[in-house]
Design a protein that fits this description.
heterodimer, A: 545 residues, mainly alpha, Sodium/glucose cotransporter, globular, disordered N terminus, B: 121 residues, two-stranded antiparallel ribbon, 4 helices, 2 strands
């Protein structure tokens, strides 16, 4: 490692702290303006939950991209490629291919047959109260795990960039993020959240394009040269095995178990996306299923372009920053992208400092936009599924429902601040993978059976939701993510008897099998009339809200 | 049948009148709707299986065929990178194929059924 370089990086962040803080503040002020403006136009429940359903396919495609490309995508993948080479790129591919499940099977039928939440579709043909309760529980669990990862990520990022390392400082940052997301969602609802996500997507793509261009320019737009330099500078490259950096296996190819773990992760990534509640509710913000299709196509284009650029970001960071400096700054590599910005701009120049500040502000914007989407998904589900349809049995007025959603937002915000403060030093990657695994195990089987299998029953839905939810959470609890290793949440104890970090390989098939078993092992048959309604609605859009 | 509350219709009423369950069942069993369902499913389901198999092939090759994936094609570009980029290309291609199919084959059929039901209701 090179102490001089590390010093240069931290000096730059210290010197230019005022600039970074100014850009952060500018983003916060701009988004608060948007939020207040959107809040003035939020009159009824459809405005609050679904942004009035008046966004265009392109606008929603941008917002979906802003909702989806989290800090894990931007900071995590760049860092993983910078440190582990090709294996980091595998994430990009899984995260993108997953969108085809949403496009081909989920987006349009969901838009046609649901109203505000994932629970609307899951409970459509079923007994309302038990299935809505299950859908609400699963929505809130997935969203909170995802939320915690983002909040912990915000703490890591901001503390590194602003040099805040004290516990009190990190807690203050988590509280600030929590407070902002409460304001965005309670005041702006879906409209405000959507605009914040669009602004963020534009900033993220512009920032990534700029860095990609500068990296490629340094290598005369010769990708092969960039890869060669990255491999030579990598840790394995310095040991004389540069080729290994460009091949799969550096992170996951160690033994049979890590390979199985990679398979498990790969399946969870590709099947999880179409079961993430904060993504699903975005399909309600456009007027028709056709517009929902268009928005997924835009999202695939934007997200695909972004993930292609992670090649330049990650290998660029390996080549131009080097693994020693990246690891010195953050052992997991989470600061590789900001450090790369500093280096392509020039370490001791104003250009470098400005780029670093811009990219850091983009990362901060990324986190805020994603937490707003997650908070909205969980408070919508709480208000619409659990409060209005389970507690009030469908008798709540629209006003009462939206009021409940706003209070739920405050409650979820406070809970997230508390958990985020506790989780500030935890391994965030495990939490995101868990969210994807739960979504793929509990939500996706239930959505697909509900839409496409006429013999699916209430009991089947409950078995697949609770079975998928419980098995994935249970397996993660006894996995190396939680205990028994230096990078675990609780490194000092060891109760990890389940060898895989990602439970998807077991819990996803289990979710599908339980949904099927639950349906065939019940005397209560499917509601044929309700299925006729759901099927005709989902394919034609008749009576769509 | 269930004994629970009917599906919630809290909040504002929707603009269009809702057909009855009976007419939904009739439409569901009509040949016209059967054709829409078949046109959708016979395209979307095999394509889903195909892209998941293609993706799993990529994951499995990355896991268990490191030698093959490491084969250099030109400069520092190896099979693994080209395979990865091919996943991007097929994703874009499938999205385009599906959208073209939906616009040409599904939307007109769905629209016809929808307007007939709305006229009846």
């Amino acid at each position: 490692m090179s102490p001089a370089l590390h010093l240069a990086a931290s000096n730059a962040t210290t010197e230019h702290r005022p600039l970074i803080i100014t850009l952060f503040a500018a983003f916060v002020v701009a988004t608060l303006f948007i939020t207040v403006w959107a809040g003035r136009q939020t009159k009824d429940a459809a405005d609050f939950y679904a942004g009035g359903r008046q966004f265009t396919g392109f606008q929603n495609g941008l917002a979906i991209s802003g909702d989806y490309m989290s800090a894990a995508s931007f900071l995590g993948i760049a860092g993983a490629i910078a440190l582990y080479g090709y294996d980091g790129f595998l994430y990009s591919i899984g995260f993108l291919v997953a969108w085809l499940v949403a496009l081909l099977l989920v987006a349009e039928p969901l838009r046609n047959s649901g109203r505000y939440t994932m629970g609307d579709v899951l409970a459509y043909r079923m007994r309302q109260r038990p299935v809505r309760t299950a859908a609400g529980a699963s929505t809130i669990v997935v969203s909170i795990f995802y939320l915690l990862a983002q909040m912990a990520g915000a703490g890591v990022l901001v503390s590194l960039l602003l040099g805040i390392t004290s516990d009190g400082g990190k807690i203050a940052i988590v509280a600030l993020v929590g407070l902002l997301m409460i304001v965005y969602v309670t005041i702006g609802g879906m409209k405000g959240t959507t605009w914040v996500q669009m602004v963020k997507a534009v900033l993220l793509i512009a920032g990534t394009l700029l860095i990609t261009f500068l990296v490629l320019w340094k290598f005369n737009f010769n990708i092969s040269e960039l890869l060669g330099e990255a491999a030579a500078k990598s840790e394995v490259g310095q040991k004389g095995n540069a080729d290994a950096f460009l091949e799969p296996g550096l992170k996951y190819g160690i033994d049979g178990m890590t390979k199985l773990d990679f398979l498990s992760l790969g399946i969870a990534l590709v099947l999880g996306t179409a079961g993430l509640p904060h993504i699903l509710i975005r399909f309600y913000t456009v007027p028709t299923a056709k517009a929902a299709r268009k928005s997924v196509n835009w999202a695939i284009g934007i997200i695909g372009a972004f993930y292609l650029m992670t090649i330049a970001l990650g290998f660029g960071a390996a080549a131009l920053v080097g693994p020693a400096e990246i690891k010195a700054s953050n052992p997991a590599g989470n600061t590789a992208a900001p450090l790369l910005a500093l280096h392509v701009g020039g370490v001791d120049s104003a250009g470098g400092a400005i780029l670093l500040a811009v990219i850091s502000a983009v990362a901060f914007a990324t986190i805020l936009a994603v937490v707003a989407g997650l908070t909205l998904a969980s408070s919508s589900s709480f208000a619409h599924d659990i409060y209005a349809n389970v507690i009030r049995r469908g008798q709540a007025t629209e006003k009462e429902e939206v009021r409940a959603a706003r209070w739920a937002t405050v409650l979820i915000g406070i809970v997230s601040i508390a958990l985020g403060a506790l989780a500030r030093d935890l391994n965030v990657a495990g939490l995101v993978a868990l969210a994807f695994a739960v979504a793929a195990s509990a939500n996706l089987p239930t959505i697909l059976y509900s839409l496409f299998w006429k013999r699916f029953t209430t009991q089947g839905a409950l078995w697949s939701i609770y079975g998928g939810l419980a098995s994935s959470v249970f397996l993660v609890l006894f996995s190396p993510v939680v205990s028994g290793g230096p990078s675990a949440m609780f490194p000092s104890v060891d109760f990890a008897w389940f060898p895989l970090s990602n439970p998807g390989l077991i819990s996803i098939p289990l979710g599908f099998v339980l949904g099927w078993l639950g349906s065939i092992l019940t005397k209560e048959g499917p509601d044929a009339g309700k299925y006729a309604e759901l099927e005709v609605k989902s394919l034609t859009g008749i009576g769509a809200h | 049948m269930t004994t629970d509350a009917p599906p919630p219709e809290t909040g504002q009423a929707t603009g269009t009148a809702q057909p009855t369950t009976q007419s939904f069942t009739q439409v569901q069993q009509s040949t016209e709707f059967g054709e829409l369902r078949r046109t959708y499913r016979s395209f979307a389901f095999p394509l889903t299986i195909a892209f998941i198999a293609w993706y799993l092939l990529y994951v499995l090759l990355s896991n268990y065929a490191g030698g093959f994936m490491g084969t250099k094609l030109f400069g520092n570009i190896n099979v693994a990178l080209v395979f990865g980029l091919a996943q991007f290309a097929t994703t874009f291609l499938i999205a385009w194929l599906y959208s073209r199919h939906a616009a040409a084959k599904l939307d007109p059929k769905a629209e016809a059924i929808k307007s007939r039901m709305e006229a009846d209701a």
